[in-house]
Specification:
Layout lengths: L5 H4 L8 E5 L2 H4 L12 H6 L17 H14 L4 E5 L2 H4 L9 H16 L3 E7 L5 H7 L5 H18 L5 E6 L1 H9 L2 E6 L2 E5 L9 H25 L5 E6 L4 E3 L4 H14 L1 H9 L4 H5 L10 H7 L6 E4 L5 E5 L6 E4 L19 H13 L4 E5 L17 H19 L4 E7 L18 E3 L6 E3 L1 H12 L4
Parallel strand pairs: 1-2, 1-13, 2-3, 3-4, 4-7, 7-9, 8-10, 9-12, 12-13
Antiparallel strand pairs: 5-6, 10-11, 14-15
Helix pairs in contact: 4-6, 8-10, 9-10, 10-12, 10-14, 15-16
């Protein structure tokens, strides 16, 4: 075995740190109508003309449903020690509830067995946005409390079926993303008589007060699922959520600025993270809609704040820079300069320090004792060179910088137990279709051939050394 490089000796992560990669079911599985799977809202939305760039869809995607053994072998080859995947709810319950589909369950049993055989720890996400279409038609999706209840039933069933194999469950991925994007769709005029649709499934636009109720039902579904998983899992099973945290970064690393950043982060995550970890909505959040919404009970708040074993945060960029202020509310948000650097995606503001502040805020604001970075990565303009390799130098730069800041956090005692790079391989990138590549593995979407990128080489060495390399 090669010796550790001198540069990485002082940049190591804690022993037992999970080096993982992540994907989601709709983005890679394909087999959208195979073996009894029901329709999801993303099947419906992606089949709608003009909803997805180039009218792409996930009908085939990466064909992971049939190629999972190859994909697990690739993950092992690039040093992944953990894999965060999501389960397609309509593959298990085609109608959202009722009679389970054994063929769908069997797929995930095969996948998990393959992972365990490769020495890769499975981390299952129970909801990564592909709601059964039947529940959208019957209840209005997350507009109804009934969806939260049947989600818990599904979560409990999966915990019972996989409990001897899977020890870590994420209830829901990115509450903010699927709620805000799915229920606040907008059409943007880009000139020439053309409009671009921004949003996602189910493709609705509702009032702000209704949106708050959807948020409440989503976090209620999380809390009910936590209870169901605990009720149906063996002892030692761990459960948490994975949320796209809105992070405020202090302009200056000084106490008053840090306090301001913590205040902003707590308040700007009020509709999801804060209520799940504190069991109450902030006064400012409730006042936004005149205090009348969302409708909830004290018992629901207790359920939403059911005790967790860990928290997962998806960290890509800072949402704000802040400084303290003598004026209420005690801070001032600093606008981003027009020339602030970005990665390939127009939304992806670059500041690696967000990977320090995000977990540190989780510890300082909410006392988190076990944190996972459940997503971090970047899109890049990846192409296959003449020699057959993919030289994603910008992704290597991004990962080295971000992991350096994460290691800084762990060296200061912030309890980060693992990191899941997004994503294991290029995939269907929601409304961008196949136009944005986030993977460590390049996928030719015509032939479905897989090619490890330069960043995969970097990740393998980082995992081997358990350090920034």
């Amino acid at each position: 075995m090669a010796a550790k490089s001198p540069a990485s000796v002082g940049r190591r992560f804690p022993e037992g740190f999970y080096w993982g990669v992540g994907t989601s079911s709709y983005q890679i599985e394909g087999a959208w109508n195979k073996d009894g799977k029901g329709m999801s809202i993303w099947d419906t939305f992606a089949h709608g003309p003009g909803n997805i760039k180039n009218d792409d869809n996930g009908d085939v995607a990466n064909d992971h449903y049939h190629r999972y053994k190859e994909d697990v072998a690739l993950m092992k080859s690039i040093g992944a020690k953990a894999y965060r995947f999501s389960i397609a709810w309509p593959r298990i319950f085609p109608e959202g509830t009722g009679q389970p589909n054994q063929k769908g369950l069997d797929f995930y049993i095969r996948l998990v067995d393959e992972l365990l055989g490769a020495g890769i720890e499975p981390f299952a996400t129970l909801y990564h946005w592909d709601l059964p279409q039947t529940l959208q038609d019957k209840y209005g999706g997350w507009r109804s409390k009934q969806t939260a209840k049947v989600f818990a039933d599904y979560a409990g069933y999966m915990a019972a079926q996989l409990g001897d194999r899977v020890k870590h469950y994420f209830t829901i991925n990115e509450f903010r993303s699927f709620v805000e994007a799915g229920y606040q769709v907008i059409d943007v005029d880009v000139g020439g008589g053309k409009k671009v649709r921004l949003g996602g499934a189910p493709g609705l636009t509702i009032s702000d007060s209704e949106l708050k109720q959807v948020r409440h039902h989503a976090v209620l579904g999380h809390g009910l699922a936590v209870q169901a998983i605990r009720a149906h899992s063996p002892a030692g099973t761990k459960v948490g959520f994975a949320e796209n945290i809105s992070v405020a970064v202090p302009v200056i690393d000084a106490p008053a600025y840090v306090k301001a950043a913590e205040m902003v982060t707590r308040e700007r995550n009020a509709g999801f993270m804060t209520v799940m970890l504190e069991g109450r909505y902030t006064e400012a959040y409730l006042a936004e809609a005149g205090g009348g919404t969302p409708k909830f009970t004290e018992e629901e708040l207790k359920t939403i704040a059911s005790p967790l074993d860990f928290v997962g945060i998806n960290v890509y960029k800072p949402r704000w820079y802040v400084e303290p202020s003598d004026e209420p509310p005690g801070y001032r948000e600093i606008p981003l300069n027009a020339s602030h650097p970005k990665m390939q995606s127009s939304w992806h503001v670059l500041d690696p320090e967000v990977m320090y502040w995000a977990p540190r805020h989780m510890q300082k604001i909410w006392g988190a004792r076990s944190i996972f970075i459940t997503e971090n990565g970047c899109g890049a303009s990846d192409v296959v060179a003449k020699d057959g390799r993919v030289y994603d130098s910008d992704r290597v730069m991004f990962l080295r910088a971000c992991l350096g800041q994460l290691q800084r956090a762990t060296s200061e005692g912030v309890p980060v137990d693992g990191y899941f790079l997004w994503s294991a391989q290029d995939n269907f990138e929601w409304i961008d279709g196949f136009g944005k590549r986030f993977g460590l593995i390049y996928v030719d979407f015509d032939t479905l051939a897989r090619i490890p990128k330069l960043s995969a080489q970097w990740f393998r060495e980082a995992s081997r050394q358990n350090a920034v390399v």
